[in-house]
Amino acid sequence: MKRFVLRYHFFVLGCIGFILNSCNSRFRVWVGTNNEQKIYNLKYGEHKRQKMDVFLPSDYPENSPVVLIVHGGAWKYGRKEHMIHIQKMLFKNNIPSINMNYRLVSKKITYKQQLEDIGAVIEKFNSLAQKAELQPNNYILLGESAGGHLALLYGYQHADQIKKIISLSAPTDFFSKEYLDSFYSKYTSPTIQKVVGTKFNRKNLSEEFQKASPIANISYIPTLLFQGNKDFLVNQRQGLSLDSALAQQNVPHKLVFMEGAGHAPRFFSKRRRDSIIYPNILDWIKK
């Protein structure tokens, strides 16, 4: 207990530097009866969206990975509070976690700046990791939908920081012939064009769409995929194609393919979350 009280004291002191220059009244710290803590709206940058919630349970091993949660919302909507149910589940299972907001797609913001935000969160928490008695660069990325796309892409590009990836209903492919020939590409290409920040010319597609596709950026990061066969926002072929590509490259992975399931965990039934999604997430983190 003494060890954790010291951990709490120094971790909060380490956070003070991030809030002295902030007038955000919503920053708050909750401490439980066993000295577990929840820190809300900790700044990791100057933009109003660059805030994160840090949940630290009462006890965890120093080598415990920190799960970094990335919300969905078609890259231009959504907020971290949409993922609070997963963060609470991790907290109950003694797993440290960060739940982040990021800048949303606009004329000046593309997926590249959103990836930079993930990097900024990691940089900030690395500077506090020792105070929380955790190791730096020991993260599991967990994202839903657009957040799953960002988690996959960032994770595959930063093997020195990311140990595992968990992706729920994520788009994975914006460039292949299979995607271009599909009806799915017809109604998603206007959004993808804004995300990539380059005109989507089907007959002469820029290589930027390949660079933005997780399936074209695979590296040796163990990956857990969730995909529903009745997902009308992200076609099931997106998950199935990445599963095949990971198998071909001998990357440790698992596809949880759910019959009768739609899009994103917060739209799945409570029964499916409790019996399929959460057990698989916990097993992937702990294995």
Automatic annotation (TrEMBL):
Keywords: Hydrolase. Gene3D superfamilies: alpha/beta hydrolase. GO terms for molecular function: hydrolase activity. It holds the Pfam family BD-FAE. InterPro entries: AB_hydrolase_fold (IPR029058), BD-FAE-like_dom (IPR049492), GDXG_lipolytic_enzyme (IPR050300). Residues 52-246 form the BD-FAE-like domain. This is Acetyl esterase/lipase.
